[in-house]
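stuck on this fold:
=====
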Amino acid sequence: MQPTGVDPVTLPHDMRHAALAPILALLALVLAIPTAAHGQAGSDTKVSVTAVAPRPAVRPGDRIPVAVVLDIAPQWHVWTSEAQAKALPAGMVAFDAAIFTEITLQGVTPAAAATASGSIQWPKPHGVTLDQGDGPQAFAVYEGKAIAYVPVAVSPSASGRVELAFEVTVQACTDTCLAPSTIPVKLALDVRADAGDVAADPAVFGGFDPSALGAGTDAGGGPSATGVARAAPIRVPLFGWDFELDPESGTFFPIMLLLAFVGGAILNFTPCVLPVVPLKIMGLAGAAGGERRRTFVLGAAMTAGVVGFWGVLGVLLSSVKGFEQSNQLFQYPAFTITVGAFIAVMATGMAGFFTIGLPQWVYSVETKNETVPGSVIFGVMTAVLSTPCTAPLMGAAAGWAVTTKSPFTIIAVFLTIGLGMGAPYLVLSAFPQLAKRLPKSGPASDVLKQVMGLLLMAAAVYFIGAGINGYRTEPIKAHWWLIGALGVAAGLWTSWKALSLARTGAGRATFVAAGVFIAVVSGAIPPVLTYERLPWKPYSADALAGAMRDGNVAVLDFTAEWCINCKTFEKTILESDAVSAVLNEPGVALLKADITGKDAPGSAKLAELGRVTIPLLVVYASDGTETLKSEAYTAQQVIDAVRAAQQKRRR
């Protein structure tokens, strides 16, 4: 079975030698050339698709499963979905070069009357035994009548006729494969407030799991016979002050935009961004001595760079297949190393060491050479640095937006995150007197720049080290000692210069204490971050399923080498005495989903959970129940979640 996308060609299945692979590929190419001009049988000749609603009419605000029914001709089959191929049952494999089955909601008429609102429930795959040169293997496929369920949320303001346009991509195969086809299918919904509850056709919806929609239960607590659910509340984690929002409320979308804005503003105080914030503040302080209008233009330019970058992320997440996380760029080690090198150049300029010829654009973003293009570039760089981190509130808003599958919603939320992140700089430039207290010239200013340059260089080493680790199976840890040394140097230099430059005893004591604090914290970083206190094992779908099958509580931690927030949560919360004692108990399986690289198995699981940012911690009971899913959790929440999962096991 060769998924080449060419006309059917029968090839013997007993060709087992890898040396034949180039010959087969060349044969496929040669056969494809003459057939291209004559047309080629497509998979749509063997697969027909229909879309079915669970009842004749639905109410505004309903969440429904749309059944996408694939009728596959006898003796033919199509490949599973890509998401399902990453978590197949034991003994079943996916063909790496397959054209996976894909269903997308391409359009809604009228616009925004409905959106896709969660993960597709795919049909159970079948195994077809074939020998592709590595011995007989069971390849995962769909056969006969295969039904996938697409969760769709109807807008609370929708009414009348709403038309959904889906596209279904399949490749039909038997002993040979046909060219893949993208099959359009439409479904008309009648949306009205007085729509009654009508039982869904069990022949079509009998395999649907109502829990996929959240609140799909009837009065007796069983699955809803209508297959329709009201929208489940959206839980927003906030360090123990968690709260829920009702998606059917008329104020829900404005509140989500507010959360995105506040979360974007908080990003400026995360470890990812904090090292570069003083750079811009000092630049604006220097510009504040001149024309006020120019200072505002520079601040607005930086804000435009920040907002523009987050807007581009929104466009990518809403339109580019395979782009599923806001921090996905850092899954490419070359990008992470490039960011680190850029920061290193900035740090060198900050410390006043630009004595060699450098490209002109480098000087444009140096704080003493404030320019409009430089401010835009600096804004983009600041936004890039923010993406490895997640701020409270922001993660919930971004995750919800992406699960809607609505380009308008995704782009609006991500633009709002950018606006929230850039707003403080706009305010500071509008009121430049706020920045005038910072030293703009003289020995004190030079010392401040040197200290910030050292700390920024530590950040550069961090990203370069994280990028190198992206190429490695076992991460190196030596760069943490260089990071610590740079921080210690910055602290000691602060204390030493304060003794000679501070004009008052109080000022001298304050800056000496600040320098000592920086040095002590920096010195503690390497031993803390290079010591693993918990017995984490790598995440895989099989490892998670095996842990729950064995009756264990499964703790799943999403992290990455470039995620500073992740390491902060791990060391301050998960490795705290109280939490680590619970996590080290028998019957608790610790799985680390490290998404440092772009092909990490944790990436698919993160998307399945409806999240686009890390850190994220999920605690599962052995029956698969989530007792915690949070990117902003406390030590007590983790302990309580593990205890709740253990109680479910005992029942």
